[in-house]
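It is worth pausing here to work through a concrete case rather than discussing structure prediction in the abstract. The textbook approach is simple: state the sequence, then state the predicted structure, then interpret. We follow exactly that order.
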Amino acid sequence: MRLFLDCEFTQLSSAAKLISLALVAENGREFYVELLDGWREDDCSDFVKKIVIPQLWGGSYSLPTAEARMSLLRFITSFEKEIEVATDAPHYDWELFCDLVYKDGSWPRIVRNFPTDATTLLQISEGEELPHHALLDARIIAGMFSPVPRGNELS
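Step two, the predicted structure:
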């Protein structure tokens, strides 16, 4: 099963901190979370302050890191087949995904321990301009590479 990953984070640097993370599966299932902790607005670039932060949904999507990790692990382990994570930004999104999913020295066995660079996949459509919201971007990226059914609930 291929899951398309997108993250929003504080800045384009090695000091990037995760703000939000989304996964869209080939079968249309989705996961989205925003972190309440681990970053501050002072950590963010001007771009992130102006474009990313105003688009956050808040509410039930906002969780402390420990709860976000547990929710992500529940989503991932609900799949029966091995998971391949594809992202168009492996140097940032994959690293931030790993930081969130890796717990107590343990990696979820169902997840391949390396990313697929989505830019190397055969596109079936051109896609749209990414709005810089993790879930909306992940939906667009997924739609560019595989037909994804719509209407499935967020996990």
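Step three, interpretation. The chain has a mean pLDDT of 91. Residues 89 and 101 are 17 Å apart (CA to CA).
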